Amino acid sequence: MKIEVDYRFPVGIDPERQAKVIALGQTVGTWDASFAHREASFHKHQGEVAQVERQDDGTAIATVRFPTINVEGDIASLLTMIFGKYSMAGPAKVVDVRLPEDYGQRAKFGISGVRSRLGVLDRPLVMAIFKPALGLSAADHAQILGEVAGAGLDVIKDDEILGNLESAPTLERLRACLPVLDAAQQRTGKPLLYAVNVTGRADQLLAQAKRLIEAGANALLLNVLTYGFSVLEALAQDPEITVPIFAHPALAGALCGAPDHGFSYGVLLGTLMAHAGADAVLYPAHYGSLPFSAAEERHIRDALRDRNVFPVPSAGIHPGIVPKAIADYGIDVILNAGTGIMDHPDGAAAGVQAFFEALNVEAQKAKAQNANAQSQTQPGQPFDLDQIPPGPLRRALEKWGT
Amino acid sequence: MKIEVDYRFPVGIDPERQAKVIALGQTVGTWDASFAHREASFHKHQGEVAQVERQDDGTAIATVRFPTINVEGDIASLLTMIFGKYSMAGPAKVVDVRLPEDYGQRAKFGISGVRSRLGVLDRPLVMAIFKPALGLSAADHAQILGEVAGAGLDVIKDDEILGNLESAPTLERLRACLPVLDAAQQRTGKPLLYAVNVTGRADQLLAQAKRLIEAGANALLLNVLTYGFSVLEALAQDPEITVPIFAHPALAGALCGAPDHGFSYGVLLGTLMAHAGADAVLYPAHYGSLPFSAAEERHIRDALRDRNVFPVPSAGIHPGIVPKAIADYGIDVILNAGTGIMDHPDGAAAGVQAFFEALNVEAQKAKAQNANAQSQTQPGQPFDLDQIPPGPLRRALEKWGT
Question: What is the ipTM of this complex?
């Protein structure tokens, strides 16, 4: 199988011409008679225009096929080929990339591996974020963790901007939190994953990841786009990296936010992450606090789950969105809330409880529906505040809405 | 000194409001009474809006100041802070970044180091690209190199899309070319740098770079944006990387091409490359084959040269642009031509000779001007074909124009 890439061109661009420029210019280029003896080889490396389709809105989508022998089975060489120099040639957006199934890497853990580590097979996972993002000490982190750990939280992560800073060095944060993680496991009978933000120059980052795991880290967080896909791939293939890698989308908007340039979010955070070995990928939920389209979210979800990668819709997530999330995702999703847990009016533990209560209410609704019973509120419909008893969920819905 | 970032917002966006969202949301975030004991620490980490200025075209530029204690002195943590999550929040373009002088790394070689390696102090350097980009064998590369090496070429590079491919593995290409490089040095009395494309997963790439240098490589080429700034930084700081690193801009258009998203080219290919340790940086020339603004090119040129990094305007470079290039750059520039050398009607060696002839003609014009002599053509003016004697330059100008 070849590599197929869909480029969308805006009105005013000649898509047939540009597709040819890509198919040739991003592969062999031109040659003259002096290279006639290499023609067979050139043809093997050449791209080809598969089709050009005009859309109702006047844009056009051109599909270019690239030989897999031009690239190295990784994301960086793929990006250089499909959009390296051409990205500077004028408006064009990469809206889909179809790769051979064995292209790149598979998640070491992914959905099934993370579930089996946690021993949680039958419901969405609940994830929190340490907040405030900067300025807390390692001991502060341990204290916050203590609050949410007892409530049964599944995963917690550093804020993506919290690196290895003097005010709370990464290894110190981890060490302060480890006893709390242990205590939580004793109490709840299941691990709590703490995705520690791994940072630094490429060489330091790879060494730091091993140091963190040696020290007891049970998950990693990586800002894939600011450090590079090549760094994610190095972590993902390394047998010493024995913990799941949570991929953060920081900077994705610089590559995907523009209408006629860069990539669709689905390509970057779905397809490419899933072929680079991420175990779970964070991205904005379309009903969250960042502008995001439902179609992009579906594209990401499907690209990830096709390869057993956990989707983690994020940003502005609170218990009120649980019905919509379940309707969109079923159970194979990680619900990731920052302030939606940490800023619960009754504290962070209540924030976690509110999510579990919300998941239970939805599960009950689904059971009732499966039993053909009549239920005032159908699964997927917003919570009806009147039907929610006093407690963490109700308090959350009163604060953040249904 | 703090880090200052200029964000440009299009018409219709409230710049004061968004600047505050960035200053807070990309640093500490919000906190409640339970963290009152950490207020002093939070304030140290908090960003601040320095100013908001409306432009004549209705856009606005907001300057946000970030504390350097929030980041790790590298580009990845910087990008995560200044534009990580916020890049997904709506239209905004990072148009300038001002970093402390000691932020990041300095080129090991840069302009002065590359010049001293070559022993060429008083003129622009001439650089070629192996073409066609894919499908040649290692022996083909050696043969092409032989043609241009004798003509006194200063630098040659792999095409950026030519990675470590079965048809011509990187180490084989290098090994095939080494005797030619040696012979050229014997003949011309100066080295010819061959910037070998170093590729692979981060861990493999770092190891491969050392292997190539051990085998005799005297320069490296890196697609910084597809592999990651963290990889460039790892190479740049490594004392075993004893050769100049040429940074290629592949993928820059995905990050910089859109009017209201991402980065200005000047920030990405100028400021950030110069603080990440690149020795020379390639980017489109504004009079080349890619659409590029003269202002962006100036921004890049100045950001690079401020830190002793060699600017390498590229894409569509041919001998006819030499007068303009000299007017823009003076002598501290590397003129990088692919087809502009390789497709010379009389062959690649003539392609190199045409560049040197062009440089000589310009140098003569400048001398004449300095001597207050009258000259029919002033420096910086296009070549007058009638004044160019038959030979490689004239043939080049007849093909590609003046």
Answer: 0.96
